[in-house]
Amino acid sequence: MSEANTVTVQIEDAVAIVTLNRPAKRNAMSPTLHLEMADVLEKLRYEPASRVLIITGAGESFCAGMDLKQFFMDLKDNPPEFDRIFRIATEWRFRTLRYYPKPTIAMVNGYCFGGAFTQVCACDFAIAADEALFGLSEVNWGILPGGIVAWNVAQVLNFRDALYYAMTGDTFDGKKAREIGFVNRSVPLSELRQATIAFAKKLMEKSPAAMRYTKEAIRAVRFMNEPQANDYLSAKSDALRLGDKEKSREQGMTQFLDEKSYRPGFGHFKRKASQPAK
Ligand code: COA
Asked: Is 22 in the pocket of ligand 1 (CB under 6 A)?
């Protein structure tokens, strides 16, 4: 576990590009990578210079899943360390990303296997290269998609596709990923970075608080019944009004009703404040 810099960060125009950086190992996630990634996400969470997060992979791969050697083999006789790394790995790829206060985009540039599905599902958006290759390869080496992968896939894919890809291990490319709704969009690899950054900048024009609370609400109501959702959404709306330092609602109303400078149906109001989301 002596490697370092398994994750790199580049912040440009308030977009943070976080790159899994073990290209020789197809960015398989080693224990060190999990520790570094948890650290990076913690720092970027409070970094005002970054407003949107993009996760991608160095070289020809997005991420080849868990590092089978360093994680499963090297730690098999060390249950406490296995448990520690497993918890950190699950935390950053699942809860941390799902509830990240800034919008998150998985930019899938190449191979995406097994455990890598977790961070793709947890990000708010996913944009893939047409040439990317996805696979739930677990069944090919005799395990099931554990570590919350099966749950994520069952949430994001339709039931038939979830069963099909998990039980066969068949691969699918970026175009197919778009077709089955696993990613929002696929573009030629040569255009991937530019298209993803352009999308990230579009997100930055919207109210950060409104986007954050919307993300939390959409994620939460999926697991509620109607009375719970009604009550929750009412309280969540109040919380947004109280917590939004930019007073987006007031800005949006004034610009539409009084200033008549935009139409909400066709686009967003012009943000006057540019403070980072709380
Ligand atoms: N764990 C550990 N090492 C991995 C790895 C993983 N998940 N994925 C790739 N590597 C290593 C290979 O062992 C190889 O190491 P070496 O150079 O020391 O021999 C190196 O990365 C390059 O892999 P290679 O298989 O030669 O590259 P490729 O481009 O021909 O194929 C993959 C790429 C991703 C298709 C292939 O490596 C693969 O199937 N990996 C396993 C994917 C998987 O099942 N992940 C699920 C884990 S939950």
From this structure: no
